[in-house]
Fold each of these.
Amino acid sequence: MSSSYNEPYDASVLRDGLFVEKSAFVSGAGSGIGRAIVLRLVELGMSVFGTGRRVEMLEETAKRAGGKAGTFTYKPCNVRETEAIEALVREVGEAQGIDLLVNNAGGQFFAPGTQISRRGWDSVIDLNLSAVFTVTKAAHPYLKARRGSVANISLSGVDRGSMGLAHSIAARAGVLGMTRSLALEWAKDGIRLNCIGPGTVVTEGLAVEAARPMLDRLVEATPMGIPTSVEEVAELVAFLASPAGRLMTGQLIQIDGAAHLGPGLHMIAAE
Ligand SMILES: CCCCCCCCC/C=C/C(=O)SCCNC(=O)CCNC(=O)[C@H](O)C(C)(C)COP(=O)(O)OP(=O)(O)OC[C@H]1O[C@@H](n2cnc3c(N)ncnc32)[C@H](O)[C@@H]1OP(=O)(O)O
Ligand SMILES: NC(=O)C1=CN([C@@H]2O[C@H](COP(=O)(O)OP(=O)(O)OC[C@H]3O[C@@H](n4cnc5c(N)ncnc54)[C@H](OP(=O)(O)O)[C@@H]3O)[C@@H](O)[C@H]2O)C=CC1
């Protein structure tokens, strides 16, 4: 594995103490991009609450967050279990408020459209679109109380399509539409919502030797020839939540080395 693909990247430009007395709710906090977001927000002084299904992953995030300026607490939950996740958002909102909601939990399998069953389609739409709506709606009263913001972790190229991702791109394009619509509806409450579209991010699944051919192909399809680091996604989330992001809402920000302008990060070959 080329070290340049997954070496930690120092993207930090924001000032210490930026988020003291602020609070965040982060889904998918036990791995990859979500964990990096948690660690950066905690470093900047935030009280971060994280969820995800696997408690041992959340425990590891907590271990790594120890000794930093802010705090990290967690409880496992499946974002697709509507009543449970709504109750959890309420619990966190009542206990510590929500200045920032990060909808990061997500994922999909790669398959051509002809091999996606209705149940497979529904699962991906449920996780990557419907659950995002449920969590965001549940957080609304708390975001309103704090004039907070929402960062939806999406994909680069949501408005162009990519082979092998019909279900996931459909879901994320739906999130983009939802983001823009709620940005309009909730502007009067001072709530801002944005989508971040990372290109290829070398998290655990892609960092294994077996995934190397796919990773090489993805990096080749990235005009700048560099995958996105979790640290730079985290810094962008923090920037958007900061006073510098005050007027940024309803946006899709693609952090992808121009992947969305390239030949497409196709996850499968044409059939
Ligand atoms: C420029 C552009 C750049 C754009 C691109 C930019 C780069 C993109 C890179 C993205 C990277 C990442 O997201 S990294 C994160 C990757 N990690 C993950 O995605 C893991 C999480 N994934 C999941 O959990 C699953 O995919 C998901 C389906 C959502 C889980 O839902 P469920 O638990 O309900 O799933 P299951 O019960 O197992 O299965 C439900 C149905 O889905 C079907 N199914 C499951 N896997 C399947 C498969 N491989 N092929 C076909 N069908 C499958 C099953 O057969 C079931 O249907 P029936 O058989 O009919 O019953
Ligand atoms: N890696 C990449 O190249 C890219 C990733 N993305 C997107 O970024 C986000 C983070 O991905 P990444 O960090 O790379 O990958 P990971 O697979 O490491 O992260 C996904 C996280 O979501 C959590 N999660 C998944 N399903 C559920 C669920 N039903 N309920 C609660 N939590 C859930 C997982 O935890 P657990 O399994 O414990 O529940 C995991 O922590 C995803 O939305 C992904 O699609 C976007 C562009 C590129």
Note: The mean pLDDT is 95.
Amino acid sequence: MTTTYNSIKSLREALKPLRADKKIALVPTMGNLHQGHISLVKLAKQHADIVVVSIFVNPTQFGVGEDLDSYPRTLEADTEKLIEVEADYIFAPTVDEMYPIMPPPTQVLAGSISQMLCGKSRPTHFDGVGIVVTKLFNIVQPDVAIFGKKDYQQLAIIKQLVRDLSFDIQLIGGPIVRAEDGLALSSRNQYLTETERAAAPELHKAVQDLAVKLQSGRATSETALQSLIEESITAINAKGFKVDYLEVRNQDLTPITEFAGKQSWVIAVAAWLGKARLLDNQEVDI
Ligand SMILES: Nc1ncnc2c1ncn2[C@@H]1O[C@H](COP(=O)(O)OP(=O)(O)OP(=O)(O)O)[C@@H](O)[C@H]1O
Ligand SMILES: CC(C)(CO)[C@@H](O)C(=O)[O-]
Ligand code: BAL
């Protein structure tokens, strides 16, 4: 059975008797669920006895002028999908329940990792993610928490949060779920027009092309890497996107300083296509 709670107190009461002998997993979401989210719930079920899915469009992670008001809110359809996949609890609080004072005076800042990549164009975004995820961890006290690798930087920031605030939580990153044509599933894909949707998989293709070049050993120096990156940005922009950033980093998101020998890198990209800012990434082991 899938039960929905809107209050922190009632969810805590429901979970309390289960803690003694059940493993609890948390899957945090902003709702408008698609197969990417459902894959995380299925992964959660493999690692825990009880799965809690939070659905909360978190205002503190939206910047001024972003899509907080228009972000799709589809709780009824989401609930049906979660019943079908047999999630145990849905936590769907109101903004007042989560933030008695708005904006909350307490902050959870992630430092330099939150100012790079997506943080350059969304400078307060990860501070909002930091506080809401900290609250969700404190409310649910899960044994396991599942996040998607589509939001690669977010997962890296949450790894740092778990380490620095000593949360006793096992973090698991779920693989990116894609449409058949390669586009990473995302709630914001619905902002695309039909023509833009047809062009959208080009982003993934460009990332794959760059991955092939990296794997063939062409990034022998900082300069060589930079020129491959610039080639990719030009190719993506030529398809009608406006690249926000495309960077190659070590998989912990530190800058690359070693070019010889075995390397574990990640290509991370964000690009605007019409009203949608699309994210993608690919890990590359060289
Ligand atoms: N295609 C996907 N594959 C795997 N995980 C995903 C995918 N899309 C989203 N997730 C994960 O689901 C969780 C909730 O994400 P969220 O509700 O913001 O969905 P979203 O589709 O990414 O929305 P948005 O378009 O706002 O970025 C996050 O951990 C996110 O990384
Ligand atoms: C982790 C999260 C649920 C926090 O609001 C959100 O950033 C998301 O959906 O990725
Ligand atoms: N999945 C990322 C949530 C956001 O862009 O706010």
Note: Residues 28-30, 58, 61, 129, 132-133, 151, 154 surround pantoate (ligand 2) (CB under 6 Å).
